[in-house]
Amino acid sequence: MYSKTVIERFQNPRNAGAMKGANGIGEVGNAACGDIMKMYLKIDDNGVIESAKFKTFGCCAAIASTDMACDLIKGKTIDEALKVTNKDVLDLLGELPPHKIHCSILAEESIHAAVQDYYKKREKELKKAQKAAAEAEAE
Ligand code: FES
Q1: What pLDDT, on a 0 to 100 scale, did the predictor assign at position 106?
Q2: CA-closest residue to ligand 1 atom 4
Q3: 77, exposed or middle or buried, with CB in 10 Å at 0-12, 13-18, 19+?
Q4: Mean pLDDT for each consecutive 10-residue tract of the chain (139 residues)?
Q5: Which end of the chain is more exposed for a tag (fewer CB within 10 A), N or C?
Q6: Which of the listed residues 103, 105, 110 should we mutate to test ligand 1's pocket, taking the one with most ligand atoms within 8 A of CB?
Q7: Which positions ≥6 away from 93 have C-beta within 8 Å?
Q8: What whole-number distance in Å separates Cα of residue 136 and Cα of residue 107?
Q9: Pick the catalytic residue: 59, 60, 70, 103?
Q10: Edge to edge, what strands does the sheet with 36-43 contain?
């Protein structure tokens, strides 16, 4: 039913666990199966993904997919990471049964959610810095 790679990734994920100091955290879920994925990213000042980790409360295919997605985006720029699709994940994992394809889609969506969160946090920081600069100028 599952490829050797899926089973191996499920049993020995390389990127499992929460990340301290993550500056992009995305959470996605699938209402039908109830699975939830959380992606943690550490993105440097040049917009390169230094590190990616995940926590998945879900099936074997979901865990293997997110783990592989983390490997796929590490060292990439944000733009490059956003181009990673579930097809890329599947190419490396081997086929998933048709009813498990959505697990790989969830991995792709978790990347987008984490990047979105990164941009939101950056915007907040930028506004804070602008406000502080304006206040300092007014004094
Ligand atoms: Fe839903 Fe795998 S069964 S994510």
Answers
A1: 96
A2: 103
A3: middle
A4: 95 97 97 95 97 96 97 98 97 94 96 98 94 91
A5: C
A6: 103
A7: 3, 5, 6, 9, 64, 65, 68, 104
A8: 44
A9: 103
A10: 24-29, 36-43, 49-57
